[in-house]
Amino acid sequence: MRMLHTSDWHLGRSFHRVSLLEAQAAFLDHLVAAVREHDVDVVLVAGDIYDRAVPPLAAVELFDTALHRLAGAGVPTVMISGNHDSARRLGVGAGLIERAGIHLRTDPAGAGTPVVLADAHGDVAFYGLPYLEPALVRDEFGVEKTGHEAVLTAAMDRVRADLARRAPGTRSVVLAHAFVAGGEPSDSERDITVGGVAAVPAGVFDGADYVALGHLHGSQAVTGRVRYSGSPLAYSFSEAGHRKTMWLVDLDADGSVRAERLDCPVPRPLARLSGRLDELLADPALTRHEDSWVEATLTDPVRPAEPMARLTERFPHTLSLLFAPERPDDEPLASYAQRLRDRDDQQIAEDFVAHVRGGAGPDDRERAALRHAFDDVRVDMARREVAG
Question: Which family does the record assign (predicted)?
Fold first, then answer.
């Protein structure tokens, strides 16, 4: 069976205030064309269809058009909700849409109920595990620990139990939206850390022939059977080095997997430039970036006059301007942004505690209190999105 694995469309999202709706429409054109060109048997969409729980009307219309085109192609599609989606909103009308071959899986209770499709070699069971917010689904799965590993393990136990009842030789595919250990994140994914732990081991998915993951925006293989398609478009400058693709996956009769990457259309390349302003404006090696979306980090010791106006004369699509002044090696002063770079909310809060105490950081009890506070805020936000 030939599968096309994609995820993280984030319909309605902009890039530094630049609308990406046209680029997202171009990607969906490309998706439908790839389905036809490569004789795809089933399309897999592993969550984060929308960028937020209540998407703008233009994004909803784009999604509606995509559903009609996929249904019109006569190729089944299996979709799950991600952590950016409102599962309840996305799942409205799922039963009716299913008649057109679009299988939306947004309810955690249905984790062990697959979409069963057949090819010349027999049945393939597709299990959709929507994003599982641990605090909201722990009762559904009867787990004591509130964490991603616990709820995903319980969901996969249902998958394995259902698969064990099926005819020998039934192959299985799991769609999930999670941060799996070994995956490389970027700056544009929303943090899903619970209790200080974000990632779950790939072994959670043991027993599945192929695992189509969503959440991380870089296309990557955690193992030969566990893969992220990544987002079809770049949503942060941290993705400047990404090759945006979908996975074209062949699932053979014995459950073995062969996969290749299909490139997605690039609306405009990204460039991260760093140096003194005069150097950036004069360097001939940067000519190739003059039509790119640019993030420029100026290292001038003294901030130059009208830097954005001067940059956009050469790089008209400059979207982000940062400052990192060159300083002597023995000068400890650093910008606020530099001090916070690569640090999560928990680390920033702990640093603040140490700052106000004259260097004495939080003890284990206080670290736990901070962690629980951040978890409570994130869970409250998730509940608000579910409630709509």
Answer: Belongs to the SbcD family.
Say how far apart CA 15 and CA 23 lie, in whole Å: 11
Report the helix count and the strand count for the chain, using DSSP H and E: 11, 17
CA distance 124 to 170: 6
Q: In this predicted structure, what is the pLDDT of residue 195?
A: 62
One-letter amino acid of 317: H
User: For residue 296, what pLDDT is reported?
Assistant: 98
Averaged pLDDT, 251-269: 97
Domains of the chain listed by start with CATH number: 2-263 (3.60.21.10), 279-382 (no CATH)
Is residue 42 scored above 70 in pLDDT?
yes
DSSP string, 44-92: EEES--BSSSS--HHHHHHHHHHHHHHHHTT--EEEE--TTS-HHHHHT
Q: Which residues pair with 175 in a beta bridge?
A: 128, 212
Q: Which two tokens stand for residue 302?
A: 């003294």
pLDDT band, residue 15 (cuts 50/70/90): very high
